[in-house]
């Protein structure tokens, strides 16, 4: 099973992430950006980690954050720029459980269902 890749873009004020289907699709798009984004992107959303970096809780970037960083609120344009200029963080965890708090009162190794 191919897992999505995080494409990380280091912004001036915030860091941004989009998800692509696989490395091959990413490479093809970077060689020929006329390929439809729908063939490359997993989710048509731009995410940000307000704490910085690629790890941690990702939240959907606001239109204001996109406008401030990229000069546009157009999600397609922003995604295209991130895919073309961002770095592939395929080794980064998409579901990072080791830093999530489960139940602090029961200690760091407690996981409850």
UniProtKB/TrEMBL annotation:
Pfam families assigned: SBDS_N
Sequence ranges of Polar residues compositional bias: 91-104
UniProt region (Disordered), positions on chain: 91-113
Xref: Gene3D superfamilies: Ribosome maturation protein SBDS, N-terminal domain (3.30.1250.10)
Domain Ribosome maturation protein SDO1/SBDS N-terminal: 5-92
UniProt-recorded name of the protein: Ribosome maturation protein SDO1/SBDS N-terminal domain-containing protein
